[in-house]
Amino acid sequence: MSENKPENAGTTRSPQPASPAPSGAPAEPAASLPRSHEDAAQSVSKDTSPAAEQAKVRSSTDDPISASALTPEDPRTARLRDAAEARSAAAESTARQEAAVHEREARRGGTRSVGATTVKPDPVAKPPAAAGEPHAGDVSAADIATDDEIATEEAAAPTKHAPGSPPPGFGAAPDFSATNPPPPNALPPSPPRYLKQSDSAWSVFGRIIAARARQLFDRAGQRITQRTLRIGVSARIFHPEPGAKGLRGKTLQYLEESIAHWVMSRDVLVFMIPTVGHQGMLHPSNIRLRDYAKHLDGLLLQGGADVSPQTYAEAANSHEWPGDRVRDMYELELLHEFVESGKPVLGVCRGCQLINVAFGGTLYQDIATEVPTANAHVNENYDQHRHGVHFPDGSTLVNMFPGRRDAIVNSIHHQAVKTLGRDLNIEAVSASDGIIEAVRYRRAPFVMGVQWHPEFHRAGGPELLDCTPLLDTFLRVARETRF
Which residues of the chain form CATH 3.40.50.880? Predict the structure, then answer.
């Protein structure tokens, strides 16, 4: 009598006589595999007969005879053969799997349903155990598992199938009528967070429009803040000389190169602002100075000719100092347009004097004759002439130049502030004689005038005051007020 071993599970087994049943229990017939399982197992067995070996040799592609006799195969026959081989492989895998289950159930002593057949342990008699060894049938109570425990373990264990075999239910037809309801613990659908209980279609639409408008405004503001600054510089005017020919017989408007380069050193655009008007113009236009104040970000009043005494309601003390009344009217209008637009204004030398006159102040027409105790503020050395200045208490220049209350600047002027205009503060005075050297209009973001020429300081030597902080403050306010 053969033993019921796993390696014999795939071969056909002849029916074995039933071993005697224990006393008091009816004898049961030996369990046998279904007919389909026996056929699958027989298909797995290998044919080792001589005829089969010869057929393999003849069908080998290494045999020249068989290679020469090879004929093309019908595609349909090849597909049928492939399908048959696939079914055979699937049957072989299924047979091996079921045989393994059968052997495991036989060792456990329980029963398992395989397909429609109930497999029970094979009551084949076991050989007697050797002396001193436990009998194969003698198992302890702890090793015996009930059918319920085995079923629980198999239900908890994941389904396994042999490698290469199709998963369970692979060939089943899809059920399109089946539904996939949400799990019972799923939360009910809730409205989006951006919706409120009191929202309506119109309120949501209004929020969308407001968000789009904010986006457009942000983009426009970004373009404005990132745009390069545009600084306007007032023009110097060369009036035609009587009887002169060529350019000397024409009105010229120009700016001094150093003042333009000083402003451009901070990577901003500089525009010279010409005079406007209808009188004497060959080509009249509707452009006004307020248009420059609207489209430019700041104004710089450069130096040049004296301010005419008529501008501050005085008569000229000497015919040598008539000033430039035409330029006074042009720059005063320009200054007031920028101040009303909230744009910053920086005056240099003559520009400082013009700011004082614009707010009702007066000037010394000539320092040497009107203030005999004052030091010389101009000589033939022009931009090489210098003197000391002091920043009094309350001056904003103390904040621009931390730790500095005194500095050295150049001096190229024979006129100076006499009577201070309304709402103006004194920002600097001459250290030796007290002549006002800088003023600031306190009712505007930035309207300041300095009597010296900061554009010449770098060429004058390192001992002169570096006025870069003054320029940076002017440009910073221009950025803040341009929109």
Answer: 218-481
Q: pLDDT tens-digit profile of 182-229?
A: 777 776 667 777 777 788 888 888 888 999 999 888 887 777 667 899
Active site includes 352?
A: no
**Which residue carries 């075999």 as its tokens?**
165
Is 349 designated active site?
Answer: yes
Catalytic residue among 37, 333, 349, 457: 349
Residue-wise pLDDT tens digits, 381-407: 888 899 999 999 999 999 999 989 999
Of these residues, 98, 453, 457, 467, which one is catalytic?
A: 453
Percent of the chain as helix, strand, coil, to the nearest 5: 35, 15, 50
- Measured distance CA(248)–CA(264) in Å, rounded: 29
Arithmetic mean of pLDDT, 72-84: 73
38 is catalytic: no
The CATH homologous superfamily of the domain defined by 218-481: Class I glutamine amidotransferase (GATase) domain (3.40.50.880)
pTM score of the predicted model: 0.57
Side-chain-side CA neighbours of residue 239 (13 Å): 8
Catalytic residue among 98, 102, 455, 467: 455
